[in-house]
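Bump. Still looking for Formate--tetrahydrofolate ligase structure tokens.
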Amino acid sequence: MPTDIEIARAATLIPITEVAKNAGVPDDALIPYGKYKAKVDTALLPTTSNGKLILVTAVNPTPAGEGKTTTSVGLSDALHLIGKKTLLCLREPSLGPCFGVKGGGAGGGKSQVMPMDEINLHFTGDFHAITSAHNLLSAMVDNHIYWGNSLEIDLRRVTWRRVLDMNDRALRSIVGPLGGVSNGYPRETGFDITVASEIMAILCLASDLNDLQKRLGDIIIGYRRDKTPVFCRDVKADSSMTVLLKDAILPNLVQTLENRPAFLHGGPFANIAHGCNSVIATKTALRMADYVVTEAGFGADLGAEKFMDIKCRLAGLKPDAVVLVATVRALKMNGGVAKADLTKGENVDAVRAGSVNLRRHIENVKKFGITPTIAINHFYLDTQAELDVIVEMAKEFGAEAVICTHWAEGGAGAEELARIVAAKADAGAPDFNQLYPSDMKLADKITTIATEIYRAGSVTIPASVRSQLKQWEDMGYGHFPVCMAKTQYSFSTDPTALGAPENHDVAIREVRLSAGAGFVVAIAGEIMTMPGLPKVPSAEAIYLDENGQIEGLF
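Sorry for the wait, here they are.
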């Protein structure tokens, strides 16, 4: 097989106007960004359907790759092939992983969204708009302090940091502004990656432009000496931030390799944010299609939990079916095989041993009242015996597994999965429920997620963190859901503890209030909200060839 970018380069795309027409988007609602991508004005769209929502999630990610986005694309194309009107809803990729270690986020093989290179690099500028809006608020906070600080913001309690859409560990903790009186008052601060910005979360959870501005105004930027909060609206930044985001709030329309429509909108990471595409894109798709395929970031312990407990709770949504992606390679690694040894032949025992990870995720999804369908994303080195083990183990764990070859064959390789999932979506999920009630104490919500989903034996919440949570409850934020920031590689906070660890300790390092987004972030273990580049970043292998075409992007 050629590489992902070679496949993408050889694709025959159709004009975005034709994609829009096929999806039921009228001409006056389409705002083209070149030939193959566009924004969509959702206010001008007709309501033609009341679609079924299908969530795609996965086992814990490994360096071997699982292909959750690839499976989402393949399933969407397959649903079209069996005659179902379908819309795909995905997140936009961040530049950080593209130049770091993960690579692009547009799918792979013959199940990609297009134009792949543009989607992975800048796209329609949404992330730049979010970065600009976030840092505008940062500038206005420091400017307010410089010009007399009439709001009496305590410099020691400014909680609003800056953001950048790049992995840069050098910016995690900084001191600024320096350079004397003319530059302002020195204080400790730092940067997060854009996908961890509360602005990103707000954009993905807002229902419309008015709701967006209200949520922006509700952001807490810091506290006074008496610990009363100072809001974004107090420094009068919310309206100008909304102006910067007026186009970014509109969903982006692109196409799959099979020329099927897809919305790509928003992109919060699931290990440090809530990991779901925008509510606007999802609800718009549900109005226009009979089936909507969406995904939640990383493994089901993070993305699916946050999809159920945050996105569905705040947006009034519920999934009608869940697909859980697994691979022979991922289960081998969870069974103790090193990445370098994955190509050394059949290892049925390792697949069987690593299936404890699959079992844990099946059990967890069932806690929300839904039994997932297992999509086995086939790799060319997988043996039939290894694939059979996953089918066998899934059945033992109470779920149906389907071998899918969409990476090599496109939608045709996922038709069996599509038929099964469509039938389950038609039946719905009458027993859907969330993990905890909204009126549960914030500390208890953290403990519930850690014990029920991560299978922790203990949860360490320092007295200072408990005091902070209590303060937020007294301020009226106790009903907020909790967004856990934790390593994606393990159920524990130790990224090397693969399989299905239990009875471990989940230590909460700090908590952050996202008052505009509507949730509390609990940071566990050593997870960083500003990632760093690996020793050999992907950026070293990305270049333009003599014809001006991008190479090395995957």
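The mean pLDDT is 96.

Edit: fixed formatting.
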